[in-house]
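pinging the channel bc i need a second pair of eyes. not urgent but kinda urgent?? the chain im working w is below, pasted from the shared doc
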Amino acid sequence: MPRAPAQVAGRAVEVVSQLLQRLAGSLRLPAAHNRIRCMELILAVLRGLPGDVELDEESAKTAVKHLQEHLNDKDAKARELAVVALCKLVTIQEDVPVAEHAPFKAIIDLLEVETNKEVRAAVVSRLPLDGSSLPLLLARGGGDDTALVGQQLYLRLRQDLALASPEEDEGQVGSGRVAASPQMRRELLWTGLQEGRLEVRKAAQELLGKWFVEDAAGDVTRLVAALGPQESPELCDLVLDQLAQLQHWQPQAWLQAAADAADPGASPRALAAAAVPAAAASAIPAALTPARAYVWLHACRQVDQLVRSSGQAAATRMAASAAQAEASAGAQAEAALDAFLPSAADMAQLCLRVAQAGPAHRYVASVLLQLSALPAFNWVDAASRAVAVEVLQQLIAAPAVSMMADETSGSNGSGNGRLPPLGCGGGGHWEDAVLTLATAVLGGGGSGGGALVEACLPLILSLAEQLSVNQETADTEAPEGAMLQVLGYLRLLMVRAGASVSPAASAPLPPGIYAAGTGNEAAAGTDQAGGGPGDGDGDQGEEEEEEEEEEEVERRISLEQAVRKLAGHAGRHASPAVRAAAVRCHVVLALRDGGLERALPAALSVMAPLLPLPGARDSRNSSGGASAAQSRKEAEWQQLPRRAAVQGLVDLSLLWGEPVVTAALRRAVAAAAGAAQVAAVTERMAAVGVMAVDGVDGGAATAMAPTEEGAQPAVPPPQAAVGVVQILLQLTEGLVRKLQGYDDYAEAAGPAADALLGCARLAAQWGSQQRLAAYSRQHQARGAGFSATAAELAELLLVRLQLARVSPALEQQPQLLAVVHMALGSVRELAAQPNAGGAAYRQLLAAAFLPAARCAMALPPPPGAAATAKCAAPELMEGMARELGAASAAAADAAAAQLPDIDEDAEDENEAEDDDVGSRPDGGVRQQPHQHSQRQQRLAEVAAAAAQLGKMVLEELALVAIERDEAAGAGSEADASQGGGGSKRAGTSRRRRSPLDTHGDKAAQAYTEELCKLPSLLLPAPVLMAVGGDDLAALGFLGRRAVRFAETELRPDKVVTEAALRKLRDLVEDVENTRQERAGSAALTEEDAAPLLEALLARLAVLPSQAQVTAEVEADETWDLTSGSGGDQAQQPAGSSRRSGGGSGSRATKSTSTAATGRATRATRSKAAATGGRTRRNDLRPVREDDDEEDEDDGDEGGDAASAGDDSSDDGDAVDVVRKRGKAAEAAAGSKARGAAAAKPSSSQTSAAAPAGERRSSRAAAAKAAEKMQVLKDNDKVAARLVRLSQGEAR
C-alpha cells in the first residue's frame, strides 16, 4: 500500500538533509577538485529543492559551518562556490539584519580582501540586501576596478533596488525590493552613467531604465524629483541626456505634448495666459514643482540646440534634399518651442509673478529666469525690453522682493523649492539667476558689458540706499543681510559684465543719492577715487562753476567708485561674511582690464591685514586664535575673510603674474607699516599733550586714548617673508608637518585647503604663464608687463603638492586629494611634451625630487603600503621617478618621431660612403653625419632633466655612505682622544650637505635603499638611449663610485638589500654599454670629475636636513583647523619665511624645544668637526669650503710632525684619514681598559669600547682594511698613490 504524501515528503527532506551533511563533511578532502565537486553537488541539491521545503536544522547548521570554513579556501573556485551555496542555504530572519548574520558577515569581510574577481562578482550578485548590507556592499564593491564586478553589482541592484523609499512613495516598493536613499541614487547613477567601461555603463543604464519605466511609470518629472534638481542639477542633466539617448524620452515630443495639454501648469505659455488670482501665493498651481520647472528648462535647451544645429546643417548641406530635411527638422523644433513658450514680455511678467508668490516658489522663479535667457526669446523689441527692465527694477531694487525672508523653519531642506537670497543665508544662486535675465536683455561679456553696468548699477545703488547701506554705515551700522545682498549683487554684476569692462565704466546715479551726501564723491571723478587730496583749497568761484556744470551734466559713478562706496569701509564690519564679501568685490574689480594700476594696489591693501604676514593681523580678531570653547562652526565663520583673501591672492596671481602681485603686496605691507608707525607716534604725542588730534587737545586725547606701556611701533616685515608663494607654503606647512602640541597634522580645511588649491593652480598654470611672459617680452603690447613665477618658487610649489598627496592630512579629504592628483597629472602631461615647455616641466620635476623625498621621511606610510614600510619616502620617490622617467621617454619618442627625415638622410649618406670606404684618407673610418649629431643633440636635450637627477641621486647615495663612515670614524676618534691623548683637530668648519642618520633611523635607511632603485626608474631604455655623451660619462663615473661605496659601507650593515644593489649594478652596466656603443664618448677620469662633484655637492648641500624635516611646526589657531582643542596654547608671532621642510615658509618661529634641539645638533656637529670627523677621503669626498682659510692642527704633543703643515689639500686629507684611523686603532686598548661606551661598529672601523661579543678582532679589522686598500689600488690610481704615501709616512 503506498505511503501518504506527507510521509513521502518528510522522508525526502530527511534524505536530502543527510545527503547535504555527508557532502559538507567531504569538504575537508585535501584535493581541490574533490572539494569543488562536493560544492557543485551541494549547489545542485539546493537548486532542486522547492521553496517551501525546510531542511533539518542540525544538518543545515553543519553544512553552513563547513561552507563558512571554506570561504578562506586556497582555491578561488572553491571560495566562489562556498559564497553561492551559503547565500542559498542560510535562512534570513526578518528581525535580524543581514550584516549581523555570521555567515553573511564573513562574506562581506571576504569582499574587502578578496583578490579574485569571480569571487567578488559572486558576492555582489548573491548577497541578500537589506538596510544593513546595502551600504556595505556599495562601499566595498562600488569602487571595484574590475568590469565584471561592477557589471554584476548594477545588475543586482536593477533587480532588488527600488527608486523611492517608502516614506517618499509607498506604492513603489514591492516585496523583496530594498529602498534606495537619495544619496545612494545620486552616487549610483553619477558613477555608473559616466563609467568608462562599456559593460558597467550598460548595466547602469539598465538600472536607470527600470527606475524610469517601472518605478517612475514613465514620468520624467517624477524621476527628476526623486533625484533632487536643487541638490544635484548636474546629475539631473546627465540622467535626462541618457534617457534621450536610450530613446526612453524625447524632449521635443514632450514639449509638444505639454503645449497641447489643457492643464494651466503644463507649460509656461498656459501659465502666463491663466488669470491671476488676488492672492499672490495662489497664482502658482500646485503642479508647478521644482522638478517640472527643471525639466522645462532642460527640454527647452535641448530643442533650442536642435533648432540651431539644424539651421547650420541646412546651410552647409550640398544636396538639396538633405538641406530641406534639416531645415524641416529645425522648423518643427522651433514650432514646438513657440507653442510651449510665451512671448518675451509675458515671460518677464511670469518671472516676477512667481517671484512675488513667496519663498516657497523662489527656486521655480530662478529656473524661469534662466529659461528667459534662451535665444528663443526676442529681447530686441523695445516693448519687451522695457517690460524686462521694469521687472529687473522690481527684482533687484525692491527690498520686498529682493530681500524676501523665509519665516518657515527648515527652509533650506532639499526639494522644498526655497532658494534664499544672499541677505538671508543663500549662496548667490537667486541673484545670479536675476542677472542672467539682465544679461540676456541688456547684453554682457563683451561690448554689451557696458550697457549691463549702465542699467543695473543704479538699481544696486538704489537697493543700497533703501537698505541704509552707504559709506557712513558700511562699517558698523548697516545690517549684515543688507550688506551681503548689496555686495553680492555688485560682485556678480562685475562678473557678468566681463573682464573687458574697465573699473572706470560708469552709470548714472539714481535720483536722491547725491542729496544724501554721497554724490560729491562720485562726481569728483577718478582723482578722488584714488584717495588723492580733495579740491577744497580752490577758489570759491571755481567751486560755484563746478556746481553749475554738475547741474547741467548728468552725475555718474564708476565701478571703482561704487566698490569704494559700498565695500571700502566694510572691512571694519562686525560680520566676517560681510568682510569676506568686501574682499571679493575688491578682487573682482582688480581682475578687469585696467585694474593693474589702481584697483590691484587697493585690493592688496585691503587683503594685507588678513594674510598671515609678520606684524599683520585681522583688525577684528587681533587677539589671535580661537578659544577652546569656540565651536568649529564659529571658527569656520571667523575664517571667511581670510579664505577670501587667500583665494583672491591666487586669482590675482594667475591673471597679473605672481611677481607683479608679490611686488604690489610688499608695497602695500610697507605702506601699512609706515602708516601704523605714523599713527603710533601721533597717538603718543597727543597723549603727552604735544599736539591735538581731531580737534581734541592733548589732555583730552590722553584721557580718550590711553596707550599701553611698552607698546612698540609697527615694524615692516622682511621683504623675503612677503610673497604669494611664501604665504601659500606657510599656510600649508601644517598639512605636511606635525603641529606642536598636537598628535596629528593640521586639518585640510579652511585657509589651508584654499592655499593648497592655490598651489595646485599656480603649478598647473606655470607653463602657460611662462609662454605668456615670453610673448609679452617679444610684443610690446597688451600684457607687456606680465612676468611668470620664478622656477625656484615653482619648484617649492611642486614639492608641497608631492608631499600633500602622501600626507595623512588629506586622507579624509578625497575631493581635495583628487584636485592635487589632477594638478600633478597636468604637470606630468605637460612634462611629456617634446617642446621647450615640456623641458621646463621636466626640469621642475627633477629639481623637486630630492627635497620632496627628504621631507617625506617624516611622513608615515600611506594607506596600502607594505607592513614593513617605515615612512612615505620610498613610495613617493618611486612614484616621482616613474613619472619623470615616463615623461622623458614619451618626450624622447615624440622628438624622435618628429625627426624621421634625419635618419633617412643619414642612412643614404652611409650607403653612398660604403662604396669608397677604402679610398678615404681616414683609413675607412666613417665620420658621423652632421644630421645624426643634430638628432642626438636634440634627444639629449629631452633627456637632460632625467640624466641630471640621476647624477644627483647617485652622488646622494655615495655621500650617504661616506657620511655613515665618517660618523663612525668621528666616534672612534672621540674615544681615542679621551683615552690615549690622540690628536685633536680644530680646523675651520666646512659647509657640507645635511647628514642622514642611517645608523638608527629606519626612515633614513628606507630612503637610502630607495636611492639604489631610482636610477633604473629614471633612465629606462628610451631615455638612456637619448642621453648625451657627456651625461653618459658622468653617469658611468658616479654609478661606479656609488656602487663601490654602497658595497663597502652600506651593504655589510644591511642598510641596503642585495636586490636593490643589484638593480644599481645593472643600471651602471647598461650605462657603460651604451657609452661604449656611442662614438666619441670617453670615460670620465677622477681629475676631470672634480668640477662635477663640486657642482653636485653645491646642489645637495641645500637639501633640508633630517632635523629640519622632523621638526614640528608651531600651530597657529587663527588659521589652522586642528582635530583637537588647543585654545590654551600661547600664540607666537609669525616669523619670516625660509626654505625649510620642502619649501619656503616656516609658519612661525620655532618653540623653545625646537630651538634647543637645533642648538644641540649644532653643538654635536661642532664637536665632530673638532675631533676630525669632517675629514674626507681623497677627491671621492668633495667638500665645499665656506671660506679660503686652511685647516690647521692644534699642535698637540701626540700629533705627527707631518700634520703641522696640513693645508686641506686632497693628498693631505687622505694622509690624515689613514693616520687618524691608525691612531684610533692604537687607542682601542686604552679605551677598552676604561670601559668607555662606543658607537656600533661599522664596516670601515673597529669600535674602541664595544662589548667583547660585538667587537671585531684586530686580525679581522686588519684584513678588512687591507681589502679596502686593495680595492682602492685597483680602481683608483690617485687613491693608490695617496695610500702609498701614507704607508711611506707610517714607515
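so The first strand starts at residue 161 and ends at 162. and The chain has a mean pLDDT of 74. — does that match what u expected or am i reading it wrong
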